[in-house]
C-alpha cells in the first residue's frame, strides 16, 4: 500500500469521526428560522437525558388536561414503565407488572368487543393496550372543536419545526389580540401559531392541576425517596408536558445517544491505532 493511500485512509477515518460530532451539533441547533426562544432542556445535546420527575408530572398534565381532546395513539400504557420512561421501577423490569402502570391503564376506558356476543363495549385498560382514540373519527373531533381536529400528540415534537421549543412556545404563547387584528370566530390569539389564530383555547393556567410529592424507588435496590413537587404554574405545566411528549416521540433517545458516543469513541481510538500502525510500519523508511 502506498504511503499516500495510507495517509488518506487515516485522514478519512479522522474526518468521519469529527464529522459525526459536527452533524449532531448542527441538528441540535437547527430551528427552521422560527423566532422562538430556545429553552434549556436536559434532553438536548450529545449526553442529554430525560427528567423522569418532569415526565411523570407531564403525564399528569396530559391525562388531566390535554387528553380530553388529544390522543397519543402510538403509545401503549406499558411504555410508561419502560426503562427510561416516566414510571420505570427497577423492581418491575417487565412494565406490565408495574403497579403504577396497571393503575394508569385502568384509569382509561378502552373500546373492545364482548367475547360472548360480539357487541362493542368499553372496558378498563390493561398495560398492553394502546392509548385509546379520544374521538370516534376526524369529523366528530372537528365538530367538537370549532372545525379544527386536535392532532395526535405522540409525535408532535418531531412533527413541528422547533420541536420541544415550539410546543412550549405555543402553550405559553396566548395573549390578548392586538386591536388591529380581526379574529375569526372561535379562534384565540397565539404568537407562536402560524397565522396567530388557533382554535385551541388556552389549555393551561396557574394551579390547573395539583402536583403531589412523588416517592420514587431507589436505583439498584437503594432506599426509596420523596421528591417535592414544584408549583403548578402554567409555565411549569407546559415544560413538564413537553418533557413527557418529547419522550413519547423518541423513547429510545437515551440508548441511541449512548450507542452513538460509544461508536464515536471506537472510531476515534481506531483511527489513532491506524495512525500508530502506519508510523510503525514505515519507521526508518525514507520517503
Ligand atoms: C378542548 C380541546 C383541547 C385541549 C384540552 C387541548 N387542545 Fe391542543 N389543540 C386543540 C385543537 C382543536 C387544536 C387544533 C387547532 C387549530 O388547528 O387551529 C389543537 C392543537 C394543538 C397543537 C398543534 C398546534 C400546531 O402547530 O398545529 C398542539 C402541540 C397542542 N394542541 C397541544 C396541546 C397540549 C400539550 C394540551 C394540554 C396541555 C392541549 N393541546 C390541550 C384542542 C385542545
Describe this structure in words.
With 287 residues, the protein is mostly helical. It is 39% helix and 7% strand. It contains eight helices and six strands; from the N terminus they run αααββαααββββαα. Strands 1-2 form a two-stranded antiparallel sheet. A hairpin with a 7-residue loop joins β3 and β4 (197-198). The protein is globular, with a radius of gyration of 25 Å. Mean pLDDT is 88; it is low at 17-34. Bound molecules: heme C. Residues 61, 65-66, 68-70, 145, 148, 150-151, 156, 160, 167, 170-171, 198-200, 203-204, 241 line the site of heme C.
Q: Strand percentage, roughly? A: 5-15%
In angstroms, what is the radius of gyration? 25 Å
What is the chain-wise order of helices and strands? HHHEEHHHEEEEHH
Give the termini separation: 14 Å
Calculate the mean pLDDT score and round it: 88
Sheet/helix structural class: mainly alpha
Per DSSP, the total helix count is 8
Helix content: 25-40%
Ligands bound here?
A: heme C
Poorly predicted sequence stretches spanning 5 or more consecutive residues: 17-34
Main sheet attributes: strand count, strand direction, barrel closure: 2 strands, antiparallel
The count of β-strands is 6
Strand arrangement within the widest β-sheet reads 1-2
Shape: globular
Amino acid at each position: 500500500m502506498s504511503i499516500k493511500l495510507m495517509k488518506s485512509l487515516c485522514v478519512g477515518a479522522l474526518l468521519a469521526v469529527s464529522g459525526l460530532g459536527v452533524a449532531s451539533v448542527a441538528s441540535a441547533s437547527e430551528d427552521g428560522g422560527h423566532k422562538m426562544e430556545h429553552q434549556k432542556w436536559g434532553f438536548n445535546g450529545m449526553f442529554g437525558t430525560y427528567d423522569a420527575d418532569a415526565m411523570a408530572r407531564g403525564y399528569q398534565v396530559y391525562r388531566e388536561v390535554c387528553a380530553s381532546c388529544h390522543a397519543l395513539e402510538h403509545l401503549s400504557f406499558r411504555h410508561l414503565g419502560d426503562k427510561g420512561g416516566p414510571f420505570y421501577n427497577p423492581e418491575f423490569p417487565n412494565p406490565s407488572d408495574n403497579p403504577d402502570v396497571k393503575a394508569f391503564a385502568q384509569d382509561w376506558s378502552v373500546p373492545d368487543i364482548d367475547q360472548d356476543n360480539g357487541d362493542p363495549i368499553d372496558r378498563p385498560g390493561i398495560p398492553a393496550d394502546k392509548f385509546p382514540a379520544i374521538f370516534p373519527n376526524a369529523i366528530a373531533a372537528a365538530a367538537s372543536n370549532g372545525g379544527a381536529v386536535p392532532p395526535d400528540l405522540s409525535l408532535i415534537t418531531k412533527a413541528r419545526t422547533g420541536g420541544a421549543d415550539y410546543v412550549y412556545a405555543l402553550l405559553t404563547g396566548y395573549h390578548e389580540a392586538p386591536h388591529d387584528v380581526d379574529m375569526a370566530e372561535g379562534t384565540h390569539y397565539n404568537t407562536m401559531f402560524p397565522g396567530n389564530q388557533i382554535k385551541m383555547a388556552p389549555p393551561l393556567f396557574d394551579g390547573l392541576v395539583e402536583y403531589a410529592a412523588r416517592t420514587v424507588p431507589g436505583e439498584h435496590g437503594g432506599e426509596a425517596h420523596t421528591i417535592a413537587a414544584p408549583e403548578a404554574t402554567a409555565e411549569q405545566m407546559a415544560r413538564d408536558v413537553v418533557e413527557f411528549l418529547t419522550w413519547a416521540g423518541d423513547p429510545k433517545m437515551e440508548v441511541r445517544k449512548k450507542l452513538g458516543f460509544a461508536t464515536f469513541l471506537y472510531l476515534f481510538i481506531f483511527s489513532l491505532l491506524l495512525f500508530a500502525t502506519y508510523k510503525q510500519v514505515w519507521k526508518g523508511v525514507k520517503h
